[in-house]
Design goal:
Translation Initiation Factor IF3, about 100 residues, alpha+beta
Length: about 100
């Protein structure tokens, strides 16, 4: 599966199938959340949240790809990610794009 954030795939003619998406809501356990809260006092990168968001993006992308594969897509173009805070220590990640098939020239 080819995944791009452009509206084309080089040297390919495309047929649009549908918008596809994937989403997840993730939270860190209380122990890591408390440690991260202490980190805000001194500043710097909060590794526990970086890890959580990276994992969330991977899960959301995997779900989007599965939806595209189910539609018979060869690629997903115009991919975009969005994130929102659901509550303290929890975030939603959604990824969406356009599923396409390659057609012969």
């Amino acid at each position: 599966m080819i995944l791009v954030n452009t509206d084309y795939v080089s040297d390919k003619k495309l047929e649009t199938i549908s918008i596809v998406k994937g989403a997840t809501v993730r939270a860190k356990h209380v122990g890591k959340d408390i440690m991260s809260g202490l980190k805000t006092l001194v500043g710097g990168e909060i590794e526990a949240y970086m890890e959580m968001m990276s994992e969330a993006r991977a899960i959301a992308t995997e779900r989007m790809v599965k939806e595209a594969e189910g539609l018979g897509a060869d690629a997903v173009i115009n991919i975009r990610y969005a994130t929102s805070a659901i509550m303290q220590g929890a975030a939603e990640v959604i990824v969406y794009g356009t599923a396409v098939r390659f057609i012969e020239k």
